[in-house]
Every structure is written in structure tokens, then in C-alpha cells.
């Protein structure tokens, strides 16, 4: 990924696919796999009214038990022949994440913070591959992105996150090599839920939020949920606010046990900065403490909304039909400026460019599924067939100009910028159709998973120079077959080794300036072996995996000699290889202790790429990463009844700051902490009142971090106190 300067508005590919949602069936198989226990039942997080492929992650505290993400139908983790993790509702409550990156920071193989402090985007990678544009899913359906048009995620609106690592196009269509992150929205509950909360934190952060749910009345099978918040907040940069309005209504109608319909909505408005970068010294290559933008010309306002539904109807004892659909849209309007070099006459002044852009992205997706559960002799089948459709419309207008130079002796001096007219317009329409089939075959302790999918993607792109009226149009059609095969064996004592092979593809929009032909799709394949172990008589899950991923036909920027002279253009002759090992442990014990820990080793190599990079490590991908978070609530009979404590550490090993491997990012450890108190311990009349304080990067490390040759700074310390009342 090239250095993320403020105006990231060049047309980027839009990959489309379906995804999955966490399900509610299959719990019996999960408990049997945990050692065949028949004693006290496991208490699972189960607060939704719908079943089948919709709902939350099935979990006991921190421990995910069952999910539909790995197979699009509910499947216990032990039967899924691929590496899968979850961020459960309890983890979200204990760590109180303020961004999606905070929420996933403790999951294995996930690299957050490669672009330092930046509240504008949730950019991250897994197993070395960026998944920002093609690996984020929401409620069983793909959440696309293009240019700077990336949907913002409010963690307070989530029930959990389910993560499938590695290529996954066999079910989900056009997607990347790293995997998929499925974000699960809060859904209506059968039991009444009422919660209000106020927060105050670093940088004058004020936030109020609420969450109400339950039956609409005492007679009709209709349930509702309404979640919302209002935030007025600053950040470590005075010119970059973090303000948000968020409201998410949801309704479920469940006339009988065989039918349900859930409607999910959301609207949010977020105000932040057009840029959040620090000035990079062009002579030393080091990042400075100077804000690279212009406080008088630095605003970004994003409005986004979505409306969708999940419908399920059991036709008979064998077949169930499901249909999930969503329409979503966003508009982002931003002004930005960026200082890029010392002035030739007075080096105290830093020359600055400026720009403005307006982007609109609309996405319409629908996924139709038919699930059959039947036996053929001694074989048990769960057969899934489906067809999904997706349409994306992307529009962007851009203007470029100059900003008054930054005076390093007086960096806070006013620097007004005049009106900048739009100079370019880009339009892209993409339509995707996919048909797929998967069979999960169970025989004794064996589970065989075999699936395949055919996709067709059509992309039309128009670019217009608004100053001359010149227009270029390109169209391309891509098709690809993807497949996955896997096998899992479950022992009687909870150990489940597995092996799998999977593939993925992602279409690339545009035409090569070098060859004059359309880009081929980027393809990838993975071989993975691993083991999962649900400890008998203990709510603890251990997983380990070895993987090898090959990605072909990736796009890179390279200086190429054209007839008109050297030019830095996109070329397609890349091949990346990621090999590594991952380990994860999650546990929630009866003594009040919960834990999640992970370790990842990733060797991400450039096999084919621009000159001077072949054989090198991909920038900002550490070989070693590790994380541990623990939370402990003191027992009721202790002297400090009601108190609880949390602590975490995130280790990032050394990495390179560019693909030529001439700049190195140092290793670092970031520490987080939490303390919480339940006032019911004082008196039962205070039941439901909870005070919690969370701190991230408590030692305020703000080391430089470089990616693709541009350097940023780690986000500094943040402390947030919250007072919540539930009744």
C-alpha cells in the first residue's frame, strides 16, 4: 500500500462478495466436541431472538464456541477446517474499545497501527495482507470500500466480531488473501435490556450512549433494539476532532419457530480531519513532531447509512431458506493540506499542497441460501447452495491546489486557503454475481468440507478532466472459480487436528498504462494445517496453525520508462508469499479470571515485484507479534468485593519501513489497563451501576512507524472513564 497521504482518492478496485453471520444452531455438537460433557451446561451468550444463520457469536465469556463465519452455516469452531477467532461481547465490554482497531488488536496475526495515529480510517492487515478494502464484512454481507470511502465502525454498535483467516472466496466471492472480519451488529433481545452510559476521557472526550431492547408489547412476537451515542471529542492533534452521532434501530418479527425476519438500520455522522499526518523530513526520512496539515483547512465530514434485513424460513425437516440483503451508502466531503518540503528560499518555511474532494459510495447486496440437512447411509450432510448479487456505485470529484507554507517557528499561525475548484471526476460501477455450493460431511469423528464457487464481475470506469473535458472510459469483465477442501478429526478428549486448502480472488479495475490491457484479477491460495483443543472440564480453547499463502498478480507502483519518459505507474507482475505460525488461547474460568493471548510469526516475502524489492520483506509486517489481555473480578467473599482489574500488553517486533528494506521500524511493547467497580457490592439498591476506567498505551509511547516509505507516529495514551447504569 503506498504512503497514505491525505487525499487517497485515486480509483481503487472494489471487490464484492457475500459473507456470513454468527449463528445459533450447532451448540450441542460444540459441547460434545469439548469432551462429551453431560454435567452442568455451558452458559452461552444468547441474547437474540433469531436462529439459523443470524445472531451473535455463541460464546461463554471470552471463549467462542460456534460461528457461521467459517462455513456460512452454524459450525462449531472445532469442526471448521481453517483458523478462526472471535472477539466476544464480554471482551468488548471489558476493554471498551473506541475504534475497530482497538477491538481487534489482541487477535492473532492482526497488524494494527501500521499507519500510526489516524482516526480517519480503520486500516489493518492480517497474515501480512491488507484487508481494509476487501476483507471487512457486516452482518453476513460484504462491506465494500473505494478510495477514501470506507465505512466507519462504531464498536458500541457491535455484539461481536468473527474472524476467518486465509483466502475465503469459495463462499464469499471476491476477497483477499488475508481473510475476513465479520462485524456483528446488535440485535433485538427477547428479554428487556436498558442501559445508559456517560464517558469522559483524554483530549476533552465527552460521550453519552444508550442501548434499549426487548419485546414491543406483551402479545405480539415483535422485538426491538435501539442503540445510539453522541460524542464531542478532541484528539492528540488539535486540528483533528473525533465527533460522532450514531443511531441504530433494529426489529425482529418471529411469528413461529420456523420463521423470522430481522431488520437492521444505522445512521452515523462523523467529523474529523482531512489529514492526520506528521511532517516527514525529506532529507533524513524521519517523522517530525510538526503536524503536516493546515488547521485552517482540515475538515472531513462523513455521513453513512444502511438498511437491510435477514429472513429465514424452515421449509420442512430437511430444507431451510435464507435471504440477507442490505442497501448502504456513504458520502465523505473533505479538505486537506500537507507540508512536503522546505521552501527553496527560506528553509524555515515548509511548502504545502492542498486539496478537496467529495466521494459517494452506494452498495446493494443480496445473498440467497438454501440449506439441506440429511443423511446418506452413515454420512451426515449439511449441504449449502446459494446465489448472491452485489452492485457498487462509486463517484469522486477532486481538486488540487496550494496551502500557505508552514512556518516552523510559528506552526500555529493562521494559514487560510482559498477556494479550490474540482478538476477531476472518477466514476466506477461494478456488478458481481456468484453461485456457490458447499457440503459438510460428517462421518464418526471426521468432518469433510468441500465447496466451490463461480463468480462473474463486470466493472465500468469513467475518468474526466474537468478543466479540459477529456474523458476516458474502460470496461472489463472478470470471472473466477474458487474452491476449498478441508478435513477435521475430533478426538473424544477435545483435540481436533485439521488440514485445508483454499483460494481467493479480487478483481482489479483499470487499465495498465504500460501494456494498454486490463489488469488481471489478483489471485491467492493457502495451505493450512492446525489443531484446536477445547480443554475438557475447562472453559478454555487453544488453537495453533501453520500456513502458507501465495498471492499472484498483485498491483504495485513502479517507475517505468515509457515513450513519454519515466513515470511512476501501477504495474502487475507481483507475487507475494506469506508463511507463518499462529497460536491463540482464550479462557473464562469460574474464579472470575478471563484471558486472551496470542503469538504470531509471519514471514511475508516479495517473490516478484519492483526492482530492488525481490526477496525482501513487505514493509511494516513484523516477523513476531504477541498480545495478552487478562481481566479478573474479585470474588464476593473477598475484602474488595465488586472490584475488578484488567491488564494487557501488545508486542510488535521489528519490521521494515519500506519494501527496499533500507528503513527499519524498532520493536515495541504497548501496555493497556482497566479497573471496574460494581456498586451493587455496596448495596443492592445500586444494582446495575458500574464504574469503569480503561487506558490504552498507558506509558504514552509515540515511536515512529513507517509503511511503504512514509512515516507516522504511534497513537499516544488515552484514558476513558465510564459510568453505566443498567436496569
Automatic annotation (TrEMBL):
Boundaries of every TonB-dependent receptor-like beta-barrel domain copy: 253-698
InterPro entries: Beta-barrel_TonB, Beta-barrel_TonB_sf, Plug_dom, Plug_dom_sf, TonB-dep_rcpt-like, TonB_sidphr_rcpt
Topology of this chain in the membrane: Multi-pass membrane protein
Domain TonB-dependent receptor plug stretches: 79-179
SUPFAM superfamilies assigned to the protein according to its UniProt record, in alphabetical order: Porins (SSF56935)
GO cellular component, one term: cell outer membrane
Cell compartments where the protein resides: Cell outer membrane
MF annotations from Gene Ontology: siderophore uptake transmembrane transporter activity; signaling receptor activity
Keywords tagged on the record: Cell outer membrane, Ion transport, Iron, Iron transport, Membrane, Receptor, Signal, TonB box, Transmembrane, Transmembrane beta strand, Transport
Main location: membrane
Keyword 4Fe-4S: no
Gene Ontology biological process terms in this record: siderophore transport
Residues of the signal peptide: 1-30
Entry's family note: Belongs to the TonB-dependent receptor family.
Protein name listed in UniProt: TonB-dependent siderophore receptor
